[in-house]
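Can anyone check this?
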Amino acid sequence: MITPIPDNVSKRHAPKKVNMRESLPNRPLTKTKVKFEVYGEEMLEKSVKQSSNSGRVYLPPDWVGSRVKIIRIE
């Protein structure tokens, strides 16, 4: 809940909004392998292809409307 600033307090002295990501200590971003356990119907292994300024993976048309989970393995 955001508390409104009273009229007698200048905006210059109002409390600043804190971005939680910026307030966390700087930790090195290490690439570690983790194990996922997923239950599902089918599994495909494909390579991501370049698509403009992003990546793309084509899936079978009968998967349209289904929920999928993508895990980067490399």
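Reply from J.R.: I decoded it. The mean pLDDT is 80.
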